[in-house]
Recover the amino acids of this structure.
């Protein structure tokens, strides 16, 4: 994630000349030599192994560490008036997310969550279509995020499989993106999700450590399924897995409305499939026209963008908000609301019943 | 449905010369003049307006009426030793389905449910791949059946929207196919569905009668979502809707296993998408080789079949079972088990909790 | 082909009740026992091994034999006032096609060529779009027909590989369909093809006889490529091959106009891809609505048709023309014009220069 | 193009740390104020309006000007021992290309053409498959490059439509990429193209100047079609257009061999469609694994790249060759050979006959 954000920042001057100028001050990490190395490669002035020492010395703090390290440093930074850009999910617990949301409210700094997929041109264009009424009344939403990197039972254990550090597994890591994207796209039309029913599953209960010396327990979910209901009565299915053979990084959303439907998949992120009121089937649209969101900053029509561009757009928006002292969307409140959903799915799984959100 | 089966029967001699010879004896219906007309067109010898008068005078009784008329005539036929081929869902209530299952057990006749989509070459081929282990251990199943014929709130009311006649809406009509197809494909590997969580939704509560003279209430679901869990621990999402703009008759199944994945859609019924252990992505396979199930009866490789061929195959299998005095799959027991799932989804919706099946 | 047409005729009464009634009189062939067998299966009253004996005893003569047997029997039938439905390509030589065209002109019977792909609902719908101006001025056409059944050098020799019987290889067999489909779709807008440049290729010069006893020479093309130019100045590429690994029966056409574009593939014959003036990409249209050509005769929306339905439509149109004493399109003149193109492509290949057609 | 290369150079340190360090010295252009502006944005030390003044003062000269300005400056640079990276097509005339090729041969500098599409991971992977024999003997190649930016007759005139500056239209601009990509992929297996037949077309003979003050003649082709034959006997169709409605930047290649087939399209540049000997259809492969060419330099599996990454790869390869004093592929000889094909297609169009290449 550090690489993705560093890269994004380095590209702003050429493609978004109006974005604030950025100086990379201090890179925080654990291992001093790796840190020095990375600092040089990415262009930081200095390094620190203790975040407390430096978190109030900067204008903006990027919190890209494991989920369990989101809460305390973010709150301390915000309380010092430092703006914070935090990786998703907002926290490893609902309580932590709540504290972060409250810190953001009382802070003079700007707080943002890196739900970078909001900033894909095709996603922004989809949102425009939905909000302008081209889909009519929304009936159904399907969100799912499919990966396959854990399908091999011998794939090694990592911190992402430890609930104390990660909070949850596919649910937090992939479900957070999925719920945020769904809400971002249809929230204006159908309101919030009011209740959910979830099912979590861990297929492989322990995995070898990276050096293969011993087995460590997997204490998070490998996959989840969920149903959801929006305020308007629209229904949804939601799902994520790290065991979906044949899918690498496949976040997809489908939406059916009374006037039209649309589909998006992250593996073809330059495309949007849209079936409007005058159409007889889904159009496959290459969302790369100069008139499409963000595209005029890059290349001529038909010249596709990649995954990393989502970070450039997200950083540009966040830093502009910081510079102007404004709120950024997705905010910590947005992050908190996603966390509520993750928490509700997990509780639903425990209780085998639908859970009202809020 | 009468047209689909009549057509299927008429094609057996040319394409399945080993199938039993069929004589169309009596066509049952309500309206005498329409009945006489249809009998002539389809080639029946006589007609009847009262099923009780004739149901024991034939070797085989095709029960193609509305769902609420499945129970009594089927049981009476079976008890008279007449074989019965019944449209899906098996009944409009779980109790009715149970009685039908029991009648089938005690009858000397053969009982079959017309889950015709089992007999698509691509579906049969998918089943072969799954059962031969090409997908490995099954982790996820996604079944959904999307149509859009009710998305217009002015579309007229019909018996399918009356729970007393239909039993349920999208759940029974489309969900029955979906659950059967899922079970048919993966049942041998993952066992039965052990529990479900469901959500039913009616978007338009009343609709005009066909002649537009008045409004009648819609007393069935327009759409449902569900989650399911198999004996093996594999998870599933299931969904059907008559409000999915852009989808006409789109029954699709996706299955992810530890070694491979596959996808099928009824709108492209000659194709199967398969990603095996040696593949780097889904192959799009045209399942029209002479070596593919049923294909050698038809045309050379690459010459695609249509929807109606599923009925030819289903009828050929059923009539052969009748002739040989054997059981047919899908049996009334299969139909009953699907009904159990439909019933469990509906009860889950009422209670907002997971329901154990059986 | 006999099976395809017999099947088509047998389905007319149920689905096209207004089509003329047909009586299968005499089946012509070489091998008496095979003939008797086939006659019974398909429902013919009698058989003949000499076409001269019977060709004037029927109302309609279906000429489905090898290409070299198209000319003489068709002409004799037409000269006897018998209507003729002839398989494609019209003849094995341009001279033969010319004589057949002339015979058709002077005959009281109706003459038709079985370019059955004209009668696919998606193709008819494409033609409507083009002729109503939805594509604007046509700039480019791409026609190609890809199969792979000869890619194995050990695949056996057959009459289709003998130029004396077949006239040509992929050119006549597949190119005839391709050129006819192109002309059918865009002819009204761009006129005839005025000149062509072609390239024929035989990859495997000899093949084993079916019983593997000896090798026989392949004297036709395995594949061809061509360029073409229409009267309007629109350009085309045309291609066919029996060596296109991965393609079974893939006749495809793409058309780009100033206002829109469309694409069709026979392997997905229920679909049309269309990009109109208000679209941002190709719509994938399932051409199965009741309002689509021929569809109201079959099944509800979304219930797909197969390859064989093209023959039902073609026979219905042809027999209706016969009954009404009218011309049928595609006529022998259409067949002759396709033959002119095949001949021009072959001559262009020999001379390595563009050939003016006509 | 300047922006694409500047961006590429700026990204090398972070992603290709072993690439030579680059100092942006002098930016050459016509308009002094625009030049100063661009130099600052892209990070050049100085500017020049006369290439002769500076072309021998640098280690590497990037020639990104209009085609007619490729010859003289490139030769002067090479003769001064300066390495040259030149945009495609190599020149606006065959004679110019020949002189450039000869200058490259005698120079101590390295000369490269920016056929950047060679450096797409999916293209490199396709080449590996072909060269390792996974497609067997190659029978057919289809190359085409479809754009639609000129389909509106009111789209303004530009230098690209002037043959004196551009040399040709779609042929040189798009056909050069297409021929190079075809040769790059299959050249090792099928040898060079031995002969071609071409057809050029200009649909709109004059267009308004950008300020709409007057009309200027279009003296280049809007589109071309061609056939080609390789040394091995493999056949090809080639095509490019700026009038292909619905296609933005769609360079595609399809290859059929005796053992397998593949397809690639630039609009989905992260994907390769491959049908191998053990496959029953085309696999859709996301070429984004760590083991895929160049991918380990970027992001984790499944995280897609964009159009601009092709320039990063191309620059990294070229600059590494410069540093090591080695030849770069594609070389000026490769560029010359493409120019021979463009020239042969144009001559074939003039003469209406096949032209032998060389």
């Amino acid at each position: 994630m550090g690489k993705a954000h560093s890269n994004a920042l380095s590209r702003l001057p050429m493609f978004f000349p109006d974005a604030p100028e950025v100086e990379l001050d201090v890179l925080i990490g654990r291992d001093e030599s790796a840190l020095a190395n990375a600092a040089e490669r990415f262009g930081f002035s200095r390094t620190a192994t203790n975040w407390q020492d430096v978190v109030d010395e900067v204008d903006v703090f990027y919190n890209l560490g494991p989920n369990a390290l989101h809460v305390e440093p973010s709150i301390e930074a915000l309380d010092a008036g430092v703006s914070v850009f935090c990786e998703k999910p907002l926290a490893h617990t609902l309580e932590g997310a709540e504290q972060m949301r409250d810190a953001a409210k009382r802070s003079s700094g700007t707080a943002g969550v890196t739900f970078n997929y909001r900033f894909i041109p095709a996603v922004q264009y989809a949102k425009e279509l939905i909000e302008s009424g081209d889909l009519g009344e929304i009936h159904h939403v399907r969100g799912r995020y499919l990966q396959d990197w854990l399908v091999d039972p011998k794939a090694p254990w990592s911190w992402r499989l430890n609930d104390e550090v990660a909070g949850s597994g596919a649910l937090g890591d992939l479900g957070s993106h999925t719920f945020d994207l769904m809400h971002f796209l249809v929230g204006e039309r159908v309101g919030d999700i009011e209740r959910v029913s979830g099912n979590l599953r861990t297929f492989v209960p322990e995995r070898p450590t990276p050096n293969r010396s011993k087995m460590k327990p997997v204490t998070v979910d490998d996959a989840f399924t969920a149903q959801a209901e929006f305020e308007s009565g629209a229904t949804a299915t939601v799902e994520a897995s790290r065991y979906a053979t044949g899918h690498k990084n496949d976040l997809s959303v489908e939406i059916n409305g009374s006037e039209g439907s649309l589909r998006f998949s992250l593996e073809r992120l330059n495309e949007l499939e849209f079936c409007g009121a005058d159409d007889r089937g889904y159009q496959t649209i290459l969302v790369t026209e100069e008139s499409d969101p963000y595209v005029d900053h890059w290349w001529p029509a038909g010249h596709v963008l990649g995954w990393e561009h989502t970070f450039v757009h997200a950083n540009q928006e966040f830093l502009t908000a910081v510079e102007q002292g404004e709120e950024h969307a997705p905010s910590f409140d947005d992050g908190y609301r996603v966390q509520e959903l993750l928490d509700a799915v997990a509780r639903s799984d425990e209780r085998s019943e639908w859970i009202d959100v809020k």
Summary: The two ends of chain D are 31 Å apart (CA to CA). The mean pLDDT of chain D is 96. The interface with chain B takes residues 271, 274-275, 278-286, 289 of chain D (CB under 8 Å). Residues 170-190 of chain D form the longest helix (21 residues).
